Amino acid sequence: MGKIVAGAAVAAIGLPALNSCAGKPQKKRIVLYFTATGNSLYVARQLAESEEQLLSIPQMVKQNRYEFEADEIGIVYPIYGHMPPNMVRNFIRKARLKAEYKFAVLTYGARKCDAVEIWNDLSARAGNAFDYIATLVMVDNWLPNFDMNEQVKMDKHIPENLQRIAGEISSRRQWQEPVSEEERQMHAGFMALSGLDPEVGFLKRSERYFAVTDACIDCGVCTDVCPRGNYELTSNGVAMQGDCDFCFACIQNCPQKAIRFRQDSGDPLLAQGEKNPDARYRNEHVSLMDIKRANGQ
Ligand SMILES: Cc1cc2nc3c(=O)[nH]c(=O)nc-3n(C[C@H](O)[C@H](O)[C@H](O)COP(=O)(O)O)c2cc1C
Ligand code: SF4
Ligand code: SF4
């Protein structure tokens, strides 16, 4: 297993500075992240000192790297059904994070429920307890319920909330965002409806849920943005199969909007199809190349 010690280079990021006064040693921070449409990468970037200290979880998994050491280690991921993506869940179970201070920021779009408690429980059980866990509301990329064109118009106060979170992390606040009993109940209701296994979260089969239409131009983007490498270009066009985090990197980043959900009346979350098949989303601060670098297998 590889061991990563963060470098000390510092980049200006416009948020509270991490480096200390002259003469004092700088704090070394690394930020692990998982992203499909860039929200979590954007947040991770704002919390990292430099690009070198940003570590994509799919890349770490690909390289079989699970040991990390720094003064401060952060993790940023999108919640899926209030739970971490399957890959993040498996990563934290195997990881050994050695740091004085560990923080987690969970991005979401509409309803966080008890996501903070779920992460606290999961990470503590894995021997990686976190000192600080917060959520940040951003654009909701859950296509079945939300129109991306409407989502991007909503003001979710991201800069203010992100600045507050960055400040709290800089001062090493020990804190876990509170969860109400009502939120716990809402999550229980969601789990009953979805039939998801709480120990697995979203783990589907890509070939069951996605289809490629004639609009495909064989550009290969889908082959580069899937963190599981499920897509390939063949002589018969694009083929895809495999265990799927349901992250939507493929469907959201296809420039032709040629990837569609298959009609699936057997899955209660997808029985209605999707809200707007012509609307797709990627965070405005994140490029397609960034997603490819983060997820390419
Ligand atoms: C499979 C899936 C499940 C999701 N579940 C939730 C959820 O339970 N609550 C919520 O508020 N947002 C949910 N979202 C929205 C994402 O958490 C949110 O848009 C996140 O910021 C996307 O991050 P990314 O751009 O880094 O991929 C879900 C998205 C997906 C794809
Ligand atoms: S990203 Fe879309 S257009 Fe490009 S190869 Fe994949 S399905 Fe086809
Ligand atoms: S097939 Fe699509 S939704 Fe599934 S893991 Fe790959 S990019 Fe994500």
Characterise the protein shown here.
With 297 residues, the protein is an alpha/beta fold. It has 2 domains: 3-194, 3-Layer(aba) Sandwich (Rossmann fold), CATH 3.40.50.360; 204-295, Alpha-Beta Plaits, CATH 3.30.70.20. The chain has helices at residues 39-47, 57-62, 86-94, 115-125, 148-151, 158-170, 181-194, 206-209, 221-225, 249-253, 288-295, and strands at residues 3-5, 29-33, 54-56, 67-69, 72-78, 96-98, 101-108, 132-137, 175-176, 204-205, 210-212, 231-234, 237-240, 243-244, 259-261. Strands 3-2-5-7-8-9 form a 6-stranded parallel beta sheet, sandwiched between helices. The chain has a 3-stranded parallel beta sheet with strand order 1-4-6, with no helix packed on it. The two termini are 19 Å apart. The model is unreliable at 1-21 (pLDDT under 50). Bound molecules: flavin mononucleotide and iron/sulfur cluster (2 copies). Flavin mononucleotide binds at residues 35-40, 78-82, 107-112, 138-142, 202, 246-248, 283.
CA distance, first residue to last residue = 19 Å
Shape, principal axes of CA atoms: globular
The computed structural class is alpha/beta
- What is the share of helical residues? 25-40%
Task: Domain count, please report it.
Answer: 2
- Roughly what fraction of the amino acids lie in strands? 15-25%
Radius of gyration (CA) equals 19 Å
Name the strands of the widest sheet in spatial order. Answer: 3-2-5-7-8-9
Give me the number of helical elements.
Answer: 11
**Which residues form runs of ≥5 with pLDDT under 50?**
1-21
Order of helix and strand elements from N to C terminus:
EEHEHEEHEEHEHHEHEHEHEEEHEH
How many strands in all?
A: 15
